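so the lab meeting is tmrw and i was supposed to have these ready like two days ago... anyway. pasting both below. for each one the top line is the aa sequence and the line under it is the C-alpha cells. i havent really looked at them closely yet so no promises
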Amino acid sequence: MSDNIAPVRWGILGAARIADGAVIPGMVNSRYCDPVAIGARSWDRARAMADRHGIARAYGSYEEVLADPEVEAVYVALPNHLHVEWTRKAADAGKHVLCEKPAGMTAGELTQLKGLDPKLKISEAFMVRQQPRWIKLREILRNGDYGRPMSFSSLLSFMMTNEQDFRQKPEFGGGAYYDLGCYTAMTARYVFDAEPKRVFAAVERNSGGIDMFTSVILDFGDGRHATFMVSLAEASSQSIQIVCERAFIQLPQAYVPSRVNPNAIAIDTSADHASSIVHMLEFPPLDQYEEEVTNFSKAIRGADAPYFDMNDARANAAVADAVFASARSGSWIDVGEN
C-alpha cells in the first residue's frame, strides 16, 4: 500500500461512548484517517469531545456535520433507532457512511436505504471482521484446509448495570440481540460463508420489554448448524468454536482481542478425545477499531481492503427478523419469510 494515499476526512455523528473511547482514537491513530468534525445534540458535549481528540470543528447538530464540505465520510454513532435515518441523510449529502451496528433493526427498515449513489461506500460497523486474525480464519475455512466447517457455537455476554443506558430501552433498539446477537449471527454467516435457511430462537425479556437472554439455532443446510447465546445479564464471555471435518478451531477473546498481548487461533487436529494436537496461530496485539477505520478509508480511496456493503447488512437484518419471529411463534422460521 502506497504511503501517498490521502487520508479520508471524517465527521462523527453523535457523542457516544463507542465513538469517544474506541472509534475516534482509532481514527486519530490511523494515517489513513483525519477526523475533522463532530456533531452532537449539545454543542458543549461535542466541543469537549473534539478537544479531547484534537478535532478542529464541533457542531451542535448532526445536520451541520453533513453540510461541512470538508467531510468526506461519516461515522454514525447514534442509538440504534436512528441509524437508518442518519445513514440515509449522510448518503444523500454525498458522504460515505460507516454506521454503527445494527445498520437497521429490521430488513424492512433497511429498504429506506435503496437507491443510494453506488459510488458511495456504505457499511455496517462490525470491527471484529477487520482483525487480521478473522481474515486469516476465513482464508483457512475457504481453502478447506481442515474440511468443511460443520458446527459453529458462540457465547457473548456481559452484565449491564446502567439503568439509563439506551440498550435498556426497547424504543431505542435495546436488548441483547441488537447489541450482541447481531455480532454472533454475522459471525456464523462469516464462518459458513453462506446464509442460514431457517432459525429457531428463545427469548427472555425483562419487565421493560427488552430481551436479556436470547438463544438461537441457525440451520445452514447440509448438516451445518450454528448455535449461540447472548445476554446482558451474565458474566462477561466471548467465545467462538468451529468444528470442521478434520479440526476443532477456537478463537480466545474472540470479539474483543487483547491490545497488549498476542491473539490466537487454536486449531486442534486430534483424532480422538484421548489426545491433544493443538496448533496455535499467533497475531500481534491490535486495536481493531483502528483496523476498521483504516480499511474503510482504504476502500473509499479504491485500495484493496476488506469491505462489506449493505447487502451484507440486509442479510444480517433478515436473520434478526427471523430470530424474533421464531421467539414469538415458538417454531422454526425460514429466513426471509417475514
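ok protien two:
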Amino acid sequence: MTEKQSTNSAAPAAQDLQTLLGDGLARRWWQSITLWLALLALVAVAGGWWYWQAGKRAQATPRYVTQEVQRGQVRLTVAANGTLQPTRSVNIGSELSGTVRRVLVDVNDQVKKGQVLVELDTTKLDAQVLRSRAAVASAQAQLAQATATVKEARAALARLEEVARLSGGKVPSAAELDTGRAAYDRAVANEAAARASVQDARAALATDETNVTKASIRSPIDGVVLSRAVEPGNAVAASLQAVTLLTLAEDLTRLRLEVSVDEADVGSVRPGQAASFTVSAYPSRPYPARTTRVAFGSTKTDNVVTYITYLEVDNADLSLRPGMTAAATITSTERNDVLTVPNTALRFKPAAGGGAAAEGGGAKASGGGIMGQLMPRMPRPPSGQRRGANGDGKGSANGGAAQRQIWVLEDGVPRAMSVKVGISDGRVTEVESEGLQPGMQVITDQLAAGARP
C-alpha cells in the first residue's frame, strides 16, 4: 500500500518538471537548426561566388608598370679617348756634326732658358776659327798692298799729266798717258777686290765662331727634361733632319689632352665646353677639363673617321704625366631643373581594351617589355620629323622641341598627354607640358591580365 502511493506521487512531479521546461511545447521557425545551416550554406556560396567574380574582374583589368615624373638634370655627353701631352714640347737636336763631350742634364731635371744642356767636342771648330782669323789677316794685308798700289798709280798719273801740261802736250805721248790712266784704274779695282776679300774672310770667321758657340747646346725654354737620347762619346751627324738628343716640356702644371671624337659626335662638340676624364693610374678620380679647339682635319683609321679635339687640363699637383691614356666625357648640352621621364614612357602605348582615356588616335600594342626595361633605347622621332643636326638621335640643343605622347596613370586608368621632348642622355628624356607635374606616374609597360608585376 505504501509503495503504490509513492509511485503515484512521483509521476505528477515528473510531469510538472516537463511542463516547467517546456519540452512538450512546439518549437518556433527561427529555432530550427536546419534553417540556420541552410542560411550559412547560402552565405558561403554567395561569398565564394563574389570572390570568384572579383578575381575574374581583377584578372581582366590590365596592370601597368609605372615610374614617377622627376625633376632633375639631363646631360648630353660625348665620349672619346686620347692621350695627355705637354702644352708645348721642344725636341733638342744639333746643327753640327761632332762627338758629344758632356751631357749636363738628365730626365726630370728642371732647366732654365739659355742653360747649357749638351757640349760637343770643339777641337776641329777651334782650328777652323784660327784658320779663319789667319784668312782675315791675309785679306787685310792684301788690302794694304792694293791701297799702296793705288797711291803709286795715282802719283805716276799725276806726274804724266803735269809734264804734258808744261810741254804743251808734246810729251809724254798719248799712249803713255792712256797707260798711266789704265794702271790707276786697275789699282783702284784691285783695292775694291781686296776690301771684299776682307769682308768675306771676316764673315767666314764669324760663322766659325758661331759654330763654336753652337757646340754648347742650350735650352730654348724654361721647362723639364722629358727624355734623353744621348750619352757622352756619341757621334752626332748633322743632316737635313736633326737627330733628337733631348725632349723638353715647357710647363707640366698645364697639360693638353688630345682625344679623337667620332664623326657622328663632332657636331655636338665646340670650344669652351666642360669635360672630365679619368686615367688608369687614378681610376676613381675624375679630372676636370675644358675643350679649347676642334680640328677641321680628319683622321681615318680602319674606315673610322675621327677629329682631334684638344682639352686644357690643370695639373697643379703634377699627378698626371705626359703620355697617359685618358677616357674623356665632354658635356655638349646640359639642362638643369627640368622634368624628366624614362625613355620607355615615350615608346609606350596601351593595348586595345585597356580602358585608356585616349586623347586622339586608336590604341595600339605596348611598345615596352622586359627587354625595353633592361635595355633603354633612344626615343625615335615621329614620322616625318628630321633628325637633330648632330645626326646621333640624341636630340639637338638648338633645334625645336618635338611633340610626343606619354601615358599617365590616374585612378587606375591611363590618360594620354602631349609633351614637348628635349634632349636625352639615353636613359631619361627632358619633357615639358602644362599638365605634367613631378610625382605623377607615367606608364612604361603593360602587363598581361593575371600576370604578376
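from a quick look at the 2nd one: The two ends are 93 Å apart (CA to CA). The chain has five domains: 2-57, 63-73+336-447, 78-85+255-332, 88-114+223-250, 122-214. will dig more after coffe
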